[in-house]
# Entry
Amino acid sequence: MINELPMATDESDAAPPPPRPPPSSVKQTIAAAAVVTAIAAAMGALFAAPPAQNTGQADKTSPAQEASAAAGLFDMPPIVTNLGSPQEIWIRLEASIVFDAKTLPRPDVMAEEIAGDELAYLRTLTLSQLEGPIGLQNIREDLNERAAIRSGGKVSELIIRTLVVQ
# Structure
């Protein structure tokens, strides 16, 4: 008995059709970014604050500063100095003070005094005192203690916003 294999037809010999290329993800990403940008621009235009009216009087403090001063938070001027050792390393400290508005009517004057005291303290630090989380915690405690002493207890806390060592 001879096994006969069926003969292949022309249909089975034909190569399968080439696969379709996947949709371009770059085009989809660009389209999505354009849609998000358009929505953000529309929302920004919708909720934009009207320009402030100039009354001809120059305010010494902005409304944001007045609101934060009423809440008992005042941004101190940035402090930039070099460390005690090594002296080629610089440090920049941006901080805010928390105070009671009833007991401290002029926080700007007190912030200047505290900034001067903090500057003198930062000039005595060494790089090894700044290393690690324990070093940061020790400096935070020292700065808080100096602020409380300088203000006579009127400043309840000094908040470090940024501390950059370069």
